[in-house]
């Protein structure tokens, strides 16, 4: 009396099925299947599933096991630059989630090559991984076409150009740039320059538009002499800032990422310009590099690690429940204020 009763699920031959085990263990069919086929799960989950299987005498279906064997237990993650601290943040957090699921993460560097990314997505038809996290900074129509028919689940980190039926997590670059410009203006800066990455990338173009609109909204003139476009690298920040200083003398510089900002800081200090007394600097991404510069770098946090964690979680959910509607999530940025905008002692 009072004992919980289960309606046992059977196939046409009257044999106990995975559904039976899942019902008794109180887990989803996908979770039970993963454990029973040796593809991972938490210790507590695995124990519950195995106990339920023993209780009902579950015997795996040979055909189902052969189909399940197509699962590799591997998840891919493709990023433009494995030397950029923002992608290191992303990969580390994604790896933690993937590892906890009993799978392994494979890293691929795309070098930001859009055509190469499309070929990578086409290659997923060979099913050498169970799913892919793609961090892309250039999105083409070819991306959209292949993402609509990709062979395994894909989660894109980065802004897409339109409605694509894939899970997507992205940083709100526009809000991040607005935070930076507002901080400069509130501290009395009026000639705000921008050393940006390439305009043929999504982050570069979105940040350029946001910079121009934010400067104008603050009642300041938008001056092309205050803008430099290059690459998302230290060297580009160094060279771009040198060119900028040859033309104008800003009192603040927004940088397209922390690597650019580190180059900008070097260029200013080498020119004998005091930071932040004469020129304030803000980077973007708030990577570990921001704490390593001297003075320490104020930076817009765009949630790189959180994007990696969310993308990995989305992908695992998709593998477990393929029919979920596509999810689109954005990260709310915040400004991490440090020494390059606030003099020592005023923090």
TrEMBL record:
Q: Which UniProt keywords apply?
A: DNA-binding, Transcription, Transcription regulation
**UniProt-listed PROSITE patterns:** HTH_LACI_2
- Asked whether the UniProt record includes DNA-binding among its keywords, one would answer yes
> Could you tell me which residue ranges the HTH lacI-type domain spans?
16-69
InterPro entries tied to this protein: HTH_LacI, LacI/GalR-like_sensor, Lambda_DNA-bd_dom_sf, Peripla_BP_I
Any one Gene Ontology MF annotation carried by this entry is: DNA-binding transcription factor activity
- PANTHER family from the xrefs? HTH-TYPE TRANSCRIPTIONAL REGULATOR GALS, LACI-RELATED TRANSCRIPTIONAL REPRESSOR
Protein known as: LacI family transcriptional regulator
Give the originating organism.
Allocatelliglobosispora scoriae
